[in-house]
Amino acid sequence: MSDRRSRIFGLLFSAVAGGLLVTGIDLLTFLLSSTRTGMSGTWEPEKLRWIAGLCLLTSGLWATNAWNVLFRRSRLQILMQDWSLPTALLWLIPVVLGFLVYYPIPYFNHHIDKFVLALGVLSAWAAWLLVHPSSLARMLEARVYGWLRIALINVVMFLLVAEVSLRMADPLLAQSGLFSSAHDTPGGGIPHQVTDRSGMKTNALGFRDRERTIERTSSAWRMVALGDSFTWGAGARYDEVYLTLVERALADERPGAEVINLGIVGYQPEDYSALLKEHGLSYGPDLVLVNFFVGNDFMPAQGVQMIVAGLRHRVHVNGNWFHDHLSWDHWYLSHDLAYARVLADARIKRMQGKSDLGMFASDPAPAASDDPQAFSGWSPRYVRMIQGMRDQYLKADSSVFRARWNDTKAALEQIDGVLNARRVPWVLVLLPAEEQVDPRLQRLYVDMSGGVADEYDFMKPQRLLSAWAAERGLAVIDLSASFAASVETRRLYVDNDIHWNAAGNALAAGTVLNGLRPVLHRAAGAVSE
């Protein structure tokens, strides 16, 4: 029996060593065969080389332990006689699971530290077992270790039972409105949620807009605006958002004019298309504005929609099956605990007489300066974050960029087809990212990426989109030139944030108005004919 137990542990050690060896070889192969790409973050070859080396070193440690157990008369074989295989698996499974979930290819910066933690545990355990097995044996016999084992069993059982229970109860939680009003709103927004310190709330449909009616109340212009957090107005109060300013200016010219804001945080072009068909067309618009933020509509953070307890949210995916199904943010328990915490915080604030800003509230500084002299500079963390979309700025197309460009065109063509079938004109509004319009940030961007300026064409996305629109005779309002002309004299973006401040929204409103007026007059002329 003891020999059989030793063989089982030896084979288990061999399997761990083999997995680590394959991982190290995979990382080295990736480094040799891959060109730098920013789709998954600004990956660092030096860091991957260290991780690959650590994988190979740890593989050697486990392989040596396996050899000692299987083929040598050593103290390890004696230790194996007292080891419990279920207990060993109990500790090994969560470590290996963490290893698989946070595998560093595809590369994401926020996965690396967690992967290294799992790798470090495997390495430390193998080294301890190899160098001083007797002290490891004493530790395993200690009372503290027994407590840890019992605690781990309890934690694992709690997590499994809680997750299964919440998945079974999820339909009831969605109907009960435990975490929100539980309305199935068109864009997944929460109705009547306070969005900033001015007291502005989302409307009954969960959009950051005033209440709207499906039926028209006047013959004035009626427009529907689709977009993401820029359209929503992150970084500004509702009264400062560029679409709010556009609506007010048009209403001064044509009382009753409407710009219905259907912007939703985190939306992408395919989401714009779906929302237009499911809800936007019901308003009978004279014109549709598709607000395309170049910063992440081309190259978004990879994710999918999940619905937990009646609430829609985006979860991160990267193509790794273990990550995309078993990572913590995909657990119902994770989201229900987060919702409960937010709900409790909000109720405590209300009891204390404080403002409840809600889950998705923006709280811009009430007196944020647009003076460029007051800006202290971009943080390395911010620059690394925006470098995650760098593929779209590289002159040479990567395979990832080509695939995403095809997806983007498909979504825009769906919008074009739907609106053409109903004879509704639409305008593509191109919202520039800060790195596209500020030469100083461009230099920092290139320097921190380790590249050279000649590799980049920061206006490449606008050129592609404008050419696509020109082929279809579509109007384009490109804000890049007006922002580039003003960036030296005033701050247009929230400091170390991708969104516009009040000054940026005001400039955007003026530029959009200048581009909209001729389009509206042409549309009015076509209707009169």
From TrEMBL:
The chain crosses the membrane at residues 48-71, 83-103, 115-132, 144-162. It comes from the Bacteria. InterPro entries: SGNH_hydro, SGNH_hydro_sf. It holds the Pfam family Lipase_GDSL_2. Keywords: Membrane, Transmembrane, Transmembrane helix. Residues 225-507 form the SGNH hydrolase-type esterase domain. SUPFAM superfamilies: SGNH hydrolase. GO terms for molecular function: hydrolase activity, acting on ester bonds. This is SGNH hydrolase-type esterase domain-containing protein. It comes from Nitrospira japonica.
